[in-house]
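WARN no homologs supplied; continuing
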Amino acid sequence: MRLLLNWVLSAVALWIVAHVISGFHVSGPVAALIAALVIGFVNATLGAFLKIITFPLTLITLGIFWLVINAAMIELASAIVRGFRVDTFGAAFWGAIVLSLVNMALRALAGTDRAQA
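OK structure emitted
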């Protein structure tokens, strides 16, 4: 149940980011749900691999390079999902920042950010 709630919250966060960041477009709720699923899958597979490989660069940049990787994962997801489009890498970069902040806020409000005892 928690996984399903996190998926829906991620889709809502994508919808909010699409209204806040210019160049970040979601055509509807179904596209937001699919895009949230694809972004999660891409981040869990390719994103994790890239974060491991680029760890020295991430250390040098004090973690800022992870934002570049997250933006690239969002760009990749936008190439895969119909109805989800990111116009520029800059929009993906700022969208990644806002998306993580909105996701964090929504999960805190919903109470899904707490570890289960």
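The longest strand covers residues 24-26.
OK
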